[in-house]
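In response to reviewer comment 3 from the previous cycle, which asked for concrete evidence that the modeling workflow produces usable outputs, we include below a single protein chain processed end to end. The sequence was submitted unchanged, and the resulting structure tokens are shown without manual editing.
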Amino acid sequence: MTYTPPKILTFQEFIAQYGDNTRYELIDGELRDMEPTGPHEAVAGSIAGRIYVEIFSSNFNWLIPKTCLLKPPAAEATALRPDVIVLDQAELSKEPLWQKEPIICNGSTIKLVAEVVSTNWQDDYARKVEEYAFLNIPEYWIVDLRGLDSLQFIGNPKQPTITICQLVNGQYQQQQYRLKNTIRSYLLPNLQLKLEDIMPI
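The workflow returned the following structure tokens.
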């Protein structure tokens, strides 16, 4: 049996071939199939909706784009596609690609990112924690409603968990929430949200 390594793509090649396909993202040149399902998309949509209500009621100058790619400046062959991303509209004028394509390059434009965990949970709990902290994104939500992650991250027994990562001095402090817990967001202090509110049918 021969091993065929995956084809390595540049950022430009990824944009040309998969930029409009929300199924894929690029990590260190490797194409990642995010394998979105109906329940996955329903959860992401529910989270976006609840966050938008808070943005509107608090009169924040933020927006949640329908689709968006994140190109970390230090990673030449990486294009992340968060399930939910909250952008500061005042910072969009500083984005070099935004006027032509929905691509964000500056961490200062991003207020919050949420990832709904699927089979690629290692990326959500490890790689993206580092990447988003390096970009100084104030809050990162890891939404693991199926308890897919390892016991190391979500404990034993495995159960639905939301991990809220809040940036403090360049590193994320993580707080986990289970069923019946009210989730606390530093950015959205008036948010009233529990896991049960966004569980897929």
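Strands lie at 24-27, 30-33, 62-63, 69-70, 84-88, 103-104, 110-116, 139-144, 161-168, 171-177. We consider this sufficient to address the reviewer's concern, and the full set will be provided in the supplementary archive.
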